[in-house]
Amino acid sequence: MTLTREASKAPEAGGPTRRPHPKRPSRRSSETRAGYAFLAPWLLGFIALTAGPMVASLYLAFTNYHPVRGSDWIGWDNFTRMFSDDRFLKSVEVTVTYVVVGTPIKLAAALAVAMLLNSRRRGQGVYRSLFYAPSLIGASVSIAIVWRAMFNDQGVVDDVGQFFGLPPGGWVGDPSMTMPMMILLAVWQFGAPMVIFLAGLKQIPSELYEAAEVDGAGPVRKFLKITLPMLSPVLFFNLVLETINSFQVFASAFIISRGTGGPADSTMFYTLYLYLRGFGDGQLGYAAAMAWVLVVVVGIITLVFFKTSKYWVHYNGERA
């Protein structure tokens, strides 16, 4: 019986011989190759323009590199040198002051205007566009030039100040007024966080405010108990972004101080001093070390924000 079955399965003499079909590539593998093909230009750009320069700057940070004299390996000397560099310490002081004071004021102004615009009134779209317009310009050279002309000696701000009895001289040449001037410039461009706050306010259910009014809650209590907890994820997002951006301020400080960081190094921001050391004095190794210190510090601050966010950031479905 077994032989009969095997014989029936055997191919007939002279019959066609079956050949195995070539294995076709699966649809998933084809999509994978296509995905890598589309991703290849970005990967090449990332390696050539981002990852490659980062690795090169990390090497330069441990060298005494000069574009003409070449490089000599000096180890950690560039990093230890910073603690004895008075202008470096001054740049840290100026930058930290700008971040600690300017960022909260900018976020507070953005939230206040967003709450004013979070209502159905005639012409709200026009108001939102007007408040957002300065952020479209960004930290451009033209705005910095206009800002310097406004706050300089015999500028518009100086003329208005003299009209109210303030001494002449302008803010640009006064070391005690340059930081308020820079913070005012940053606060003026609050349009981007304002739009994000406005989007977050739209997501807060109106039933919460109605229930709070029934319980007799006033505007301050509703803001503290409803608006801030419900808006905390958006506030956290804006806080992280604006803090990182504040550490990177450069163009406005460079234009207003004419690339000197003056007067009396009052506008010597960290990135400006890094630029002056690297491209002004040719000390690219020292500048690279400063850049990596900035990266590490900003990374640590961002990590602290994320670690502490669980104590004050409340997402949907969580109790405030």
Description:
This protein has 320 residues and is an all-alpha fold. The chain has one domain (79-311): MetI-like fold. The protein is built from 14 helices and no strands. The termini are far apart. Residues 1-8 have low confidence and may be disordered.
Content of β-strand: under 5%
Summarize the helix and strand pattern as letters. HHHHHHHHHHHHHH
The top level CATH class name: Mainly Alpha
Main beta-sheet annotation: none
In short:
This protein is mainly alpha-helical and 320 residues long. 68% of the residues lie in helices and 0% in strands.
Task: Give the helix/strand layout.
Elements: H1 2-9, H2 27-60, H3 77-81, H4 86-117, H5 124-137, H6 141-151, H7 156-163, H8 175-188, H9 191-202, H10 206-214, H11 219-247, H12 251-256, H13 270-280, H14 284-308
Helix pairs in contact: 2-14, 4-8, 4-9, 4-11, 4-13, 5-9, 9-11, 11-14, 13-14
Features:
320 residues; mainly alpha; globular
